[in-house]
Each structure stands twice: as structure tokens, then as C-alpha cells.
Design a protein that fits this description.
- With 162 residues, the chain is an alpha+beta fold.
- The chain has 2 domains: 13-93 and 131-161, no CATH class; 97-127, no CATH class.
- The protein is 44% helix and 22% strand.
- It has a two-stranded antiparallel ribbon with strand order 1-2.
- α1 runs antiparallel to α4 (137-161).
Amino acid sequence: MLELKLEGLEDVTARLEAYPTALSAELDAEATKLAGALLDLVKDDKLSGAVLNIGSGALRDSIVASISSDSAGIVASVGSTGDVKYAAIQEYGGKTSAHEILPVKAQALAFVAGGAQRFALRVDHPGSLIPERSYLRSSLDDMEGQILDALADAVADAWEGA
């Protein structure tokens, strides 16, 4: 007759029961760190000359990171908030339609064309074809390996700590 005796079942059960809480804490902490690193890459690299040069700084200033968690999981997001109308067309590219440009803060528009200073009450813009200049997706691609490694380490650390 074969007799099997199992020892330590209570310890294994306790560790397995503690694992979801430990995993959630580890992943939340790691997601917060990774979102911050991704935010820094977008703002300090991609929107500081690597992909787009700084104009007014409005697009760069609109980039924020957020973390949310619930029973379904943890979500880390980095993106543009606010009223930066050109954020999406810079990321994905696209075509603007023909439109009229009117002065907003002055009585006339002032610009340089053909090497000379010009003034106009209005300009009929023919529209533009804007190429894709990804600053968000390209940053995520750049960090893909780092993100996967960090999340795998967080899972292992949670198991060790459970």
C-alpha cells in the first residue's frame, strides 16, 4: 500500500491567498514608476527635439501620466490632455482642410513670405498634409522591453513577498 503524507499545506495555502494582494501592490508601484519614465521620455526627448521641436510648449505641457486600478486591473496612461488641437494630427498624421486664417489678437496677420515681411487681413489656407510624427506610440515602442522586464520582475517579487 502506498501512503502519501503532505506537509506544509497551510503555508502554501496562506502564500497563495496572499499573492493577489502582493501582486496588486507590486504592479501598482511598478506601473507608477513606468508611467513616470514614459512621461519623461515623451516630454524630455520626443517633444524636446527628437520628434518635434518646442514651439509654444503647449503640447509638451499637455502630456500627463495617470494610474487607475480596480478589481479588473491596473491601467497606466500617458497622453495629451486639455485643448491642444494638433496633438492627434502630430501623432497620427493627417490632412487639414482648406480654411481661412483671420487675426485674433491684432488687426492684421503678419508673416514672412518670399523673404519679405507681409501683412494681410486674412489668408486662405489651402490645407496641409501633416506627416505622422509619433511621440507617444514611438516612446511606448522604445520602452517595450523595459516595461515587459519590469512587469515580469514585479510578478516575481510579489511571489517572493507573498
